[in-house]
Amino acid sequence: MKTLLYTLLMLSFAFSACKKDDDGSVEEELPDVTLKARVVSSGLSNIWEMVYGPDQQIWITERSGKISRINPETGAKTAVYTIPEVVSNGEGGLLGMALHPQFSTSPWVYVVYNYGSPYKEKVVRFTYSGGTLTSPLVILDQIPAANIHNGSRLMISSDQKLFVTTGDASVAANAQDQNSLSGKILRLNLDGSIPSDNPTAGSRVWSFGHRNAQGLVEANGKLYASEHGPNNDDEINLIAKGRNYGWPNVEGYCNTTTEQAFCSANNVVEPLTAWTPTIATSGLSYYNSDYIPQFKNSLLLVTLKASKLVQLKLNAAGDQIESQKDFYVNAYGRLRAICQSPEGKIFLGSSNGSDDKIIEISK
Ligand SMILES: [Ca+2]
Ligand SMILES: [Ca+2]
What we know:
The protein is mainly beta. The protein has one domain (33-362): Neuraminidase. The chain is built from 2 helices and 26 strands. The strands form 7 sheets. A 4-stranded antiparallel β-sheet has the order 3-26-25-24, with no helix packed on it. A 4-stranded antiparallel β-sheet has the order 4-5-6-7, with no helix packed on it. A hairpin with a 5-residue loop joins strand 21 and strand 22 (309-314). The radius of gyration is 21 Å and the shape is globular. Bound molecules: calcium ion (2 copies). The site of one calcium ion (CA) has 6 residues, from loops. One calcium ion is lined by residues 250-253, 255-256, 259.
């Protein structure tokens, strides 16, 4: 009897440590690991973007206009290029960056930045050659800009399209205007032309009704974005082709009488989650490495005002957030950017204005 009880007990342990996948295979759940944080690099200013490059260096933008490569082991910084045209007014300046997925044969660096007077925003493709950037090619110009709400994350999807998040540039109504480049998520071919399978022929708009999205990531065949709300309702959205995300008529969920009327008339997509009070949602990445097992199938979000890393655990389908957990609250100040190494280490970039840091999260 004692042996039978012991066997049953052991079996229940064995089953609780495993989960059955949809295909019937049994996958062992790896135990949680203890996280270690280490400052890799400091003395930077307003890190806006971080990309873990194929050269095993972390490529960063700083809002003033500088692009650099940082050695993730030693923190050694190699200047790549300073874009002379960048004008950093308020929240504006040099913002998002993406490297071409086949970088060895197409050494192209895409950046988005603010410039000029009147103030505007553009997307430019440079060629990385001889350790610097040359041959600028304008991909998209005349995006409205302002001292606030300029977006802008760049992301190249698995189907080789360039996504650009744009802010409402402080003219909220433009987010609902399909003819304005403001308050949108745009989708372009890598040469700047308009994909033939965009929602509306001849239009770069992929989704609209966005206030100021500063995080964008593709995973599970889906597109996830973070978006700054006003004094309420920061959002995480699942981005679907051609859909309306509500701003400025809807803040967060469709939960007031006026919003409900607008939402049903305009088929508005509600966020996966929303935060009131706001936390200032910025860089977004997706984690699915065995390296930190407890982060598997999670969105990782960095925040400015709340100054923390937030883990958003997704359900198996990737269409719901099951739980949230905070890390490094107020440890490094405002956090703007996040990237991962192929091994599964995570890197965070701060945006305090002076002595900004890159922080490595490992085990
Ligand atoms: Ca919304
Ligand atoms: Ca609402």
